[in-house]
Amino acid sequence: MAAESARPAAKEAAKSATPESKFVYKTIGERQLTVEMDYPPDWKKGDKRPAIVFFFGGAWTHGSPSAFAPQGAYFAKRGLVCARPDYRTKSKEDVTIAQCVEDAFSAMRWVRKNAEMLGVDPTRIVASGGSAGGHLAACLFFTEDLPAGDDDVSVSPKPAAMILYNPALDPAGFESGNLTKGMDKETLVKISPARLLRKDMPPTLMVDGTEDMFNPSITEFVDKEKELGAHVETMYVEGQPHGFFNYSPWLEKTTERADKFLQSIGYLGKEPKVELPTKAKPPEQAAKAPGAARKAGPRPKAPASRASAPAAVEE
């Protein structure tokens, strides 16, 4: 009798046991690219939850999936399955930006192909990232016809929504140099969302600081997409530089804004209430002036409607 009574408990335990927290999604030679997962506390087999895939920044040159660990932990507690892929970078593998995009495609295809195992609804996967990672997330929707390697191309890499933190949207506009090495103009345009505008862009939240070097191209992109009729929401933070969202108090505020966006598109409810993530800025960065991350030279004048904006302007 004891064995029989134990069977339902074991079956229930197997049903609620989460999958692994780290998977290999792609192998190139001896290099294994992994994706780190965060699951909701009440995750169970058979779930069909919305998911979000976070791509780290670092100028396609360096970085780690841990960059979005605070957001991943928070949104997992809120009910999403969260994925944080690694990808090849210039400092480690001397790859091009286009090859970074190829890895992002592979990661998104892997998440969607394994949606049942991960407890994910394959029709509700959000792409997100910061800076170079925001660029990769945007390319998942805008970029076409890249080499797919061993990918299952029957699986779409396109996200159902996007949350982009100060993304680099126009590599084709970069000056020739190390970042553009190995790519011709056609390839650079192909991976430049700013030059690939489409009215069917999925619902998107754009987060940026007005002192970010990419702010002029981001606001231009947003305005043009809105003119086409795309659903774009914004959080422009006056006086903040590139990467400001990584540290308190803006980590909390931008995460709260992203939560609000996900609620608005039906991917999250108001419950459960979860404490917002916090992260102190390293002392060497805290000592820098707000505009220190900006390139040298005069900042383009902001449009009159934003020139006297409060700390954060949402649209």
Observed structural traits:
315 residues, alpha/beta, Rossmann fold, globular, disordered N terminus
Write structural notes for this entry.
With 315 residues, the chain is α/β, with parallel strands linked by helices. It has a single domain (32-295), classed as Alpha/Beta hydrolase fold, catalytic domain (Rossmann fold, 3-Layer(aba) Sandwich). 33% of the residues lie in helices and 18% in strands. It is built from eleven helices and nine strands. It has a nine-stranded mixed sheet, with helices on both faces. Helix 4 packs across helix 6 (132-142). The chain is globular.
Number of strands: 9
For this structure, the CATH topology is: Rossmann fold
Terminus-to-terminus distance: 63 Å
Q: Can you tell me the CATH superfamily?
A: Alpha/Beta hydrolase fold, catalytic domain
Give the integer mean of the pLDDT values: 89
User: Could you spell the SSE succession in H and E letters?
Assistant: HEEEHEHHHEHEHEHEHHHE
Describe the biggest sheet? 9 strands, mixed
- Lateral strand order in the biggest sheet: 1-2-4-3-5-6-7-8-9
What's the number of domains? 1
Structural class: alpha/beta
Shape: globular
Per CATH, the class reads Alpha Beta
Question: Which oligomeric form is depicted?
Answer: single chain
Estimated share of beta-strand residues: 15-25%
Fraction of helical residues: 25-40%
Cα radius of gyration in angstroms: 20 Å
